[in-house]
Amino acid sequence: MAARKRASATTATPTETKPNPPLTQETTTQTDPPISPPKKGLIFKLCLFFSISYFYLLFQRYKIEQDLKRSILINAALSVAGFFLTQRMIPVASRYVLKRNLFGFDINKKGTPQGTVKVPESLGIVVGIVFLVLAILFQYFNFTADSNWLVEYNAALASICFMILLGFVDDVLDVPWRVKLLLPSIAALPLLMAYAGHTTIIIPKPLVSFVGLEVLDLGCVYKLYMGLLAVFCTNSINIHAGLNGLEVGQTVVIASAILIHNIMQIGASSDPEYKQAHAFSIYLVQPLLATSLALLSYNWYPSSVFVGDTYTYFAGMTMAVVGILGHYSETLLIFFLPQVLNFLLSLPQLSGYVKCPRHRLPRFNPETGLLTGTHDGTLVNFYLRIVGPKSEKSLCLHLLFVQALGCCFCFMLRYFLAGWYK
Amino acid sequence: MAARKRASATTATPTETKPNPPLTQETTTQTDPPISPPKKGLIFKLCLFFSISYFYLLFQRYKIEQDLKRSILINAALSVAGFFLTQRMIPVASRYVLKRNLFGFDINKKGTPQGTVKVPESLGIVVGIVFLVLAILFQYFNFTADSNWLVEYNAALASICFMILLGFVDDVLDVPWRVKLLLPSIAALPLLMAYAGHTTIIIPKPLVSFVGLEVLDLGCVYKLYMGLLAVFCTNSINIHAGLNGLEVGQTVVIASAILIHNIMQIGASSDPEYKQAHAFSIYLVQPLLATSLALLSYNWYPSSVFVGDTYTYFAGMTMAVVGILGHYSETLLIFFLPQVLNFLLSLPQLSGYVKCPRHRLPRFNPETGLLTGTHDGTLVNFYLRIVGPKSEKSLCLHLLFVQALGCCFCFMLRYFLAGWYK
């Protein structure tokens, strides 16, 4: 409460001399129509499909200790509560962000009536805050005497929270991209400090005779690699975007794959520390998946809210955190295959070698309602150039399917390489 | 990067049908005049006065181990760098927040030309982010093998970061006060989880015969008290406000007192754990003090920037964190005496028993330039009713002097009660 009359965003005008009649909060709220209801059907189908395979693995396929199972289930219950809370909060937060003029117009619908609707922006902030609340509350339910657990957990929370803060600041203030690039690397530091795992890589067995070593300790170089991984994850989700539901959709697919990977690793191992590392990952990814699904129900085509950099940074950092502290960063990178490809395609433009426009979106034809690939170097455009014009919804589904295929490929690779690689 | 054309705050109008000619970024920047330069003289005098006594205690008065002294000095050097970085970033950030219509008008200057100037709001975000970066980087320089240190440090970072995030969200979106009250208690949870200290209180010696115990273990009640302390600190700095420089000024005074208290405790003790707890507190308070001083140089009368709830929440939470994890919460509460008084005076209005207006500021007379106390229950008004009308600058100085007197009273109390109380 400072000595200032706060300027309402809606009443403020660039010219100070001619004051507008003040709009009260009520009239502002009335002029902003409520957002469309969530797409419950889509979410229900997604949840059903995923839950069956996930809980089959958890309860039937593997013998997992009661204690661990109990913690996972408490976390799952909290996550379900988080899903409903997020779904409830998004329309409320939408009114607040619209009041502050945080909105955008959907470029992929330009020329149609939908292209003139103000879509509230940065709704990732709701997901981020609910996630943090869940993650903090969960600490009470995980009675691990191991203080190392708390070090890593709090370092993870600090990194994720800092990333959400920077994402939201970016959404509100439009930070220059050089600063953007710098900040995730700083936000990742608490994480690297808390990383107590190995800094070694295992030389694939066929190469041992050439290298002369079975295990190579990379020391600081390994920590640098992890820092770069965090920077890569946050930015790669942010640049593989531009279609309704793509940012959240890719997160949902990767998070689901991570959860299944974790359960499989817990089930297949007998090392308590290894299990704990994967359980740690579950405790953070379940809330991420649940809150993301709630956001997806509003962000799916046609989007009634936009997610903002807040969401992409948050989701990327959370997955980087679990990959690093769960000690499976190589697997994570294979789950991120489409993002790696998109990054490589983007490199000439991002590095400034080729001219980089403000948006690198496909061309939308309002008459046919189809998107055509441009020559900008993104996976979205590349895919469109291969398969020909597509509607936004169908293109997003295709790309998510590609993402899911990538994850399946990773599972297969792990299955076939087991024994050969490690 | 989402599929949206971001709405520029300056071009957006409530009526969609009549589009304004778009203002480019350049013209917007030109219409916002640069903020006044920082008041370097004031800061220099403050720093000189404080540094002499602080470094005298650190180097001369007490024998402190080289290792500890080295860590404190590295932290101090980082803090000085943080001071200059913050001072450099504030004008840059001011342009960004003005572009987003995050500004206010100074109510205490209403009726004068200064009252019509757009003052950029929420500059606490710069202080918060620089603080986090310093606190994260410092981890590299504190080579304590004790993993408990990292648990507490990361829990502190998580709590402070969450509080900055919520403060900034509040500044941007104007969150309802019921939500505001709830969130600091959740942000404080990582802190309480990491608190590994005692949950006992020592019964003052003269009362031991009545109570029948020398030490009383409060268990959960003690943790509840600490949680409430965090809620109190964040909100009490936020409501003891309304004058240029008061929010930052009170933080500077309390932070200085905390630092001196820490050095005295380290110097007087021989228990390594006790020293470590107070060193921990120094590592977080030095950056707080340095970055706050940089903000004060712009926020001092006449303010060229406002600090926002971001700053008050951040400063309050940081001090609560160090009080709790440094195990000197009772002393902290005495440093907060004016805030306690302000809270008690505010209670009838905050609880809704007496009508509570949006602002509870003194009445400003544009002809005399003086402030007169109203009947609203705040310390600012109460003080004005006692001493009569005052100018804003002189009133702020008086109140900060009262704050400093409170801190001196605390030092005296500790000195005289030593041996009697504990």
Residue share in helix of chain A: 55-70%
How many angstroms does the end-to-end distance of chain A come to? 59 Å
Question: Overall pLDDT of chain A, averaged?
Answer: 84
The count of strands of chain A amounts to: 7
Going across the major beta sheet of chain A, what is the strand order? 2-3
Overall body shape of chain A: globular
Number of domains of chain A: 1
Could you state the order of secondary-structure elements of chain A as H and E? Answer: EHHHEEHHHHEHEHHHHHHEEHH
Largest sheet report of chain A: 2 strands, antiparallel
Oligomeric organization of the protein chains: homodimer
Q: Cα-atom Rg of chain A, whole angstroms?
A: 22 Å
Structural class of chain A: mainly alpha
Largest interface: A-B, 80 and 80 residues
| Separate helix tally of chain A | 16
| Unreliable sequence segments of chain A | 8-30
* Strand proportion of chain A: under 5%
Give a quick summary of the entry.
Two copies of one chain form a homodimer. Chain A has 422 residues and is mainly α.
